[in-house]
Amino acid sequence: MRLRRTKLYLPGNNPNMLLRGHLFNPDGVILDLEDAVAVSEKDAARILVRDVLRRGDFGSCEVTVRINAMDTEFWRTDIETVVPCGIDGIRIPKVENPKDIALMDEALSQIESKAKIRVGKTLIFCLLETALGIWRAYDIAKASRRVAAICPGGEDLRADLKTTRSPNSEELIGPRRMVVLAAHAAGVDALDTVFADITDDAGLRRESEWVKQLGYQGKSVIHPNQIPIIHDVFTPTAKEIEQAKKIVEAAAEAAARGLGAVQVDGKMVDKPVVKRAEFTLQRAGLKAGGEK
Amino acid sequence: MKTAQAGTLESMDCIVTVTEAEKGRGISIVMEGASVARFGEAMVKATKDTLKSLGVRDIFVSIQDNGAGDLVLKARVEAAVRRLAGGKAA
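Output (structure tokens, whole complex):
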């Protein structure tokens, strides 16, 4: 299982952040060619991002690039430039149509093949930033085997919903629930949007706890200071890990003896409980497996 | 004379300005910034290597540096040269 608790956005035309962002130890970095880059700087950012990717010094981070949306003139050049560098994935903004994902899959395969990269290596992360995108979340997640995660939008989605930001983001409750349901039904990760107020640590913790409870695997991050808070929320505690180990071990023992259920600390443990315990261990990095 | 520019004066970046030169004039490079005294030679080499890889033989290059390393300098030179040529930068 790949940990995706935090994915830090790095502005694509900012050498300082591009070269140093991974040092803050997020689980992943997103080199951003989209909103963080002015239209007049797309060309220069693309070259800079390409060269930073070629250097390839990102520690253990999952490396993705947010390309420009597929209704712009930039996206093809974006992928032709960054995919041959051997990145882990691309993040596509404003996805609304499963057919676009199929088209992207094909385009990626061609580039990978030409660059002698394993076809299928480059994963797709879909940003669903419109009502239509959210509505079609499941079909989008199933449109290609490359899709690793779907993510609800923030500000763009609010605008499309003709609403504004409220203190507790009530306006995004429905979309967030739809995305997490679609993600798990499709077998991909659900990754939450950014928390925009970088000075409100308590608000970030509250929101992270809430989306974790909904079933999200992590959040996008716009400031390095947000990383430890989100990691703290999404990392199982020592007590949770201990309990999970007990359950998994007891289940394995029961299976070896041909038993279906077993007791742990006086409580019946059946399949869903074991599954949850395995997931806790995966999240703690103590067990392999899980989603791509 | 046609001129093009790329980069910023943010930390670890530089502004590279390139100006067309007549055929046979060769490559002229002027640099300013805190790193020039220590890394000027390496910066000239990085610039010339990039120009060579792009097939540029005659050009004026001005670099205002704010701590850009080789990687960033090369990227900015390439972007400026491609802008000068009027083509897509990558």
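The interface with chain B takes residues 13-16, 19, 43-44, 46-48, 50-52, 55, 77, 81 of chain A (CB under 8 Å).
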